[in-house]
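Sharing a chain and its predicted structure for anyone who wants a worked example. Both blocks are below, sequence first, tokens second.
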Amino acid sequence: MNHTTNIPVRHRLRGDQTWQADAACQSNDHHDVDPEWFFPDPDETGKIAAAKTLCNQCPVRRACLDAALETGDNFGIRGGLTEEERQHLHENIATRLDYSRVNEAVAGRDIHLTKAERRAVIRAAYQQGLPEERLAWIFQVTYEHAQKLYRAARRAERNRELRQKKLQNKAAQARDFRRAA
């Protein structure tokens, strides 16, 4: 599982493309950007360097990278990374677990979540005592489905506690055995 710890960032909402207006790569009357910089051939190191320099100054770099990963965009430079640099991120996107995304979802922001992040949201919501209605609203599912998710969370929590007690008992038995020997 890929855990990330990043500077707190406001993640884009599902389907939101408004962040593109703030992108450093957008041309305007005062700032001309060659779009070819972002679709270089692998040996065009000058274009790659120019695009990455612009990306490093971009206020929506993270949103750009997230959008590329979430939509499976494998072409061009996105979020300051080339196609090759993003490849391992694309391959591991299903296991991404970014707690800043989990916290934002629990707070009610409608952001794209991976399966691992959805499981973490359920666990966090259960541990915080959020009602089933709130979980249903967060995931945009029925109340009955939210109840089912909470039942599974309760079972998982109970099993986790049982495993912990079992480990503690084994450790105590090992200590007792060493003392007796």
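Comments welcome. The CA atoms of residues 49 and 99 lie 31 Å apart.
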